[in-house]
Amino acid sequence: MAEKNALLESFLSCHVCSETFRDPVSLGCSHKFCSSCLQQFWEQAKNKNCPICKRKSSKDNLVVDFALKELADSFSGRKKVESETEKGERKVEVVCSKHQEKPKLFCEDEDRAVCTVCEFSLHHSHKVVPVEQAVSDLKEQLKSDLKSLQDKRKKYKQVEKTYNDMIQHSKKQLLSTEQQIRAEFNKLQQFLKEEEESRLAALREEEEQKGKTISREMKRIEEQISSLSDSICAVEEELHKHNVPFLSSYKDTQTRARAQSSLSDPQLLSGALIDVAKHLGNLSFRVWEDMKDKVHFSPVILDPNTASGWLHLSDDLTSVRRGETNQQLPDNPERNTNYANILGSEGFSSGKHSWEVEVGDHPRWNVGLAKESVDRKGECYASPKSGIWCLLHYSGKYVDVVGETLTVKKSLQRIRVQMDYDRGEVSFYDPEDMTHIYTYRETFTEKLFPYFFVFKPGDAKTTEIKICPTEISL
């Protein structure tokens, strides 16, 4: 057996390095060498002759003999011995090519296992630890990496779920918004139809009245024509009489004729035609004026995409109330999830703006402004530090944003919020008599949005707070 191993070792040994082949290649003379050993030999010799027979190689590209490589690796112990574990994983063992022993040390500097017999002396200046310790430490690192990957995947799955929720919610929004748009246009169309019928009826009534007036005048004219015609006939008959009969009867005929001739000439009535200008002039504008009683303008529109799940909005997005249950809404970035807050749909970054909010006897609310970057997911108290400037009402008292109780003469039914962005002022008034409540001054650096917080109404009659409409300017 030893002789066979010696013979096999001789067959599988490189004549340059005297070691078992690594990536063996064959020359045209059939001599075989390690690919790297042959290349190094040729570089030193500065020719491409066979190291054994000195015959010049005719091959430019040397190909690794993989069958011989497999045999050499198997003989030297470099081949990995694999066995299936119970969990279906592969166990990999590496043994030293010279001693057929498993490495017991691990060099952290070179990040590889080290043979204690033939390689340990080469690593005196390196950090070397037992393999078991290295494996334990590296597995702990890998477990940490695994935990990071799992956490990252969890975050991606959460975002995926949120997007799916947003898709489903968008479909509901589509149907609901379509219905409300159609309902609003149906109201407008009904108003326009009624307005059209009313104006057509007024046109027909005017035509009928003026037709009656002309008919009366025509009848009177016809009567005058008939009377004149009779007088003309009488005069003509009188002119045909002989002397004595004429003298006895002309006087009455002449008196009648002169009486009718002295009547004033007939005059046409003015305004007998339909007043087209009255019916058509500025028609659209006048219909729009009449429409003012049917439509309303709100200076602030609430944004449902920012509303907490506890809040319910009116169809026209100008009123909000606190519900008993938390609605299942997508956790989109704009939404307030930790508090019953909602923002306006339009922000302000310059100029003066104002709006009024009807609060009635609602027991707890905040009304004011919030910056665009306000925290909508975590802990966020109504204060300038959080980016919120508002008037607070709870426990029957009114409080400013720094926690000071305000003195008011009466319970406020409405609040007027007034902002001068450029001067950095947010003011609150009682709009009934424009009594000033308080003003907060700040240097604003980003867009501000109307801000509302609504708590449970309790036993109060007022269950919602609403944006008061303003008159439309024409």
How would you describe this structure in keywords?
alpha+beta, single chain, elongated, six-stranded antiparallel sheet, 474 residues, coiled coil, 37% helix
Write a structural description.
Residues 91-131 form the B box-type domain. Residues 280-472 form the B30.2/SPRY domain. By secondary structure, the protein is of the alpha+beta class. The protein contains seven helices and 20 strands. The protein has helices at 2-11, 35-45, 66-76, 131-239, 243-261, 276-280, 283-291, and strands at residues 24-26, 32-34, 81-84, 90-93, 105-107, 112-114, 128-130, 311-313, 319-322, 341-343, 352-358, 365-371, 388-394, 397-399, 405-406, 414-420, 425-430, 435-441, 448-454, 464-467. It has a seven-stranded antiparallel sheet with strand order 8-9-20-11-16-17-18, with no helix packed on it. α4 (131-239) runs antiparallel to α5 (243-261). It is elongated and about 190 Å long.
